[in-house]
Amino acid sequence: MQLVIRLVINAVAIWLAAAWVSGIEIKSPEDDTTTKIVVVLAIAAVFTIVNALVKPLVNLLSLPLVVLTLGLFLLVVNALMLMLTAWITDAFSDYGLAVDGFWPALWAGIVISLVNWVLGILVPDGD
């Protein structure tokens, strides 16, 4: 159940980032609501897998930069994970996430982090 809740929180965060940040777009050839929800959930699933598998390795390799910048380099890592998610979703279909560059990805990463933090506080995880 926790995985489903986290997936929905990530989906809401990505949807809000696409709505608030210009340069981030959710690509869906059809305009009906059901298709958009499925696409956002699929993007959130890919984003969750990328964050689970790739992000720890990137964090470990960038540890000196993270220490040197007092943690601000983690924002760059979040942006890179979002760009990787966009690349993966774009490579497999016409559906997915479109990121127009590094700066929109950085701002979207900040939005996603903040939304995840706020919704994580509101939804208890059982710990």
Automatic annotation (TrEMBL):
Transmembrane domains' residue ranges: 33-54, 66-89, 101-123
Pfam (any one): Phage_holin_4_2
Keyword set, alphabetical order: Membrane, Transmembrane, Transmembrane helix
Top-level taxon in the UniProt lineage: Bacteria
Record-linked InterPro entries: Phage_holin_4_2
Protein name: Phage holin family protein
Organism: Nocardia bovistercoris
